[in-house]
Each structure stands twice: as structure tokens, then as C-alpha cells.
Write a structure and sequence with these properties.
Strand 31 and strand 32 form a beta hairpin. The strands form eight sheets. The protein has a five-stranded mixed beta sheet with strand order 1-26-25-24-23, with no helix packed on it. It is mainly β and 368 residues long. Helices cover 2% and strands 55% of the residues.
Length: 368
Amino acid sequence: MTTRRTITAKMGAVVPRLIFAAFVISTDLLAQTQMAARNIGTGHQPIAVAVNEATNKAYIVNHDDSSVTVIDGKTLAAVGTIKTGAGPEGIAVNPATNRTYVANAGESAVTVIDGATNTAIASVRTGAYCQALAVNAATNKIYVANNSGHNVTVIDGATNSATSVRVGQGPRAIVLNPVTNKIYTANYSSKDATEIEGATNSARSLPTGKHPWAIAADSRANKIYVANEDSATVSIIDGATGATKNVAVGDVPFAIAVNSVTGEAYVLSYVANTVAVIDGATGAVLRTLQLATHPSTIAVNSKTNQIFIANQKTASVLAIDGKTKAVVATISAGSIPYAMAVDTVANQVYVANFFSDNATIIEGPASN
């Protein structure tokens, strides 16, 4: 998920300097596929989104309203609004228990939502400024990155009891590898990532570049990707050995998505207006796709092999074929499309539009 710091602080960014050759994305309108889309009203300033593929529901976090809007993917309608704690910023779903967890940065607590009743059933205290979450459905554990607390709160989903694990300085993103039962945080201020063993909560530091901002995992290849905002690199961590390889990308990398089926990772760079395509097997940048203007968030549908990239200035989403890297559709969204989530079962993409107080639902055919 992108955050307001990137969207606001980088909006007036200067023209990017050229770092390496880039391929311009083909946007031949005659070759594009029509994808159905509609906007659904949410609360004020939707900032995050998560989906439950088991129930075909989407949950949109409304930052200024301190609430979550529930959208039914079957009827394409909002079916509930649930109050959370103050200043919600992150969200994650456990499809096995049908519970949703919301990180409320404004009060350092997580709201637990029962998906069957659309009600908040508990509030769990965390460290200071909880910002991001990851859920292990197999162990029913929830991991909460506390940016100002410099720790991770581990919540037992069965009892809502919590414990704390010390990590690096300023953890602002978190990801789980469910295959290895390891959790990784991107620690913005200490220039490292922390690896947590899910079975024991033991932790170790792994070096990254300067100001790690976003993190993603390829569970099949057991590789972790960390976008380093101020060093224009991505750190690729070998989950088995902890070895790190730094790969140069465009200026201000801030978002990552991974397709574990193809083994490719996609890194958005805000100032460079690019997406770097990284081959997970070699760690090499296969190509760099030039975008028209500042991207804001990215998501991948591994089943259709499509990449979705939102653009804050054009209020639109590009759908890119993962094989050819050509644009197959351009979809209108709301103002400042800010966060996205993909329901691979229903083949739907949900876009939280920060300034227009709505969410765009994209329904599309599979790629060729």
C-alpha cells in the first residue's frame, strides 16, 4: 500500500534523470480490451483495501471517517459500514476465520471485524502508530508493524491476546511468507529488514538500502523484495540464507507487486515514472517500462498474469499483459487512486480513490 507521504510529498517532484534505457509501454487503443468498471461510494479518504476471496467481499478503509466500507463483489454494492478506531491506515483479512483486522494508527490499536455479521468484535492494543498488517491464515496469527514503536505486535486470532517482537527503527511495511512461516518488516529509519520466525518470534536483521519503504514476498521462490526509497534500489533477500542483492531501479521506488507463478516482481518508481520488471531467478531487471505520469499503486492478478498500475494524475488504471508487457486496457478510476487489491477468484480489482471518496471495481476478462 502506498501512503500519503509519497502521494503528497512527491507530487511536485522534478523531471526524472535518466538512469537506464526504458521501453515505452504500448498503449494502442485499438488493441485494448474493454473492462467493466463502476464506482461505489465509501467514507472519507479511502486509504487501504483488502479482499476476502472466500466470501467475495472487499473492505475499504476510510481514514478520516475511522470506518470500513464493506462491498459485496457479487452484487457490486456497499453492504455495510463498520466503525474502527481513530486514524485507520492498514487492513488484512483472514479468510479461514472470516475476520478482518484494521490497524488504527491514531490510537495504536487493531479493530477485529467479524465478516459474518459486519461488526467490530474486539480492539487489541498494539505498539505506537500501528500502520500495516500481515495475516497467517494457517496459524491464525496477525502481525502488526508499529512504525513509532519499532516493534511488531503478534496477535493470537483465537484469543486476541498479544505479544511484542522488537524489530528495526520505523517499520512501515510488513509481509508474510506463509510457506516458511516467516514475517518480514521494512524498517525505514534503520536501513534494514527484520525477519521474524513465526514459530518462535525470534528475529534477525537483514541489510537493505537507504529508507526501505515497501516490501513483498515471492512465497514459491522464497524471496523477499524491499524497495529502498532513497537509494533507488530494490534489495532481494534470499529467504533461505538471508543473503541480500541490491538491484538498481528508477528514482524513488515505493511500491512492489510479485507474481509467484511467473517469478517476476514489479517495482514502481515515483519520480522516474517507471515500472521495473525483475526476474526473480536471476535478480536482473528484464526491462523498464516508462509510464506517462506519476504512478500511485500496483497490484497483480497471478491467475490472469495481469499487472494493474494506478496513476494519480490521470485518475486511471492500466491493465498490462504480464507476458507481452503491453497495455490491454485503460480504466477510469476516481481521484487519486491510492490502493488496490485483487480478488483472483472473482477476477476483480478494487481501487480505493483517496480524494473522490469512492472505490472503483474493475471486472475484466482473462488476458490472452
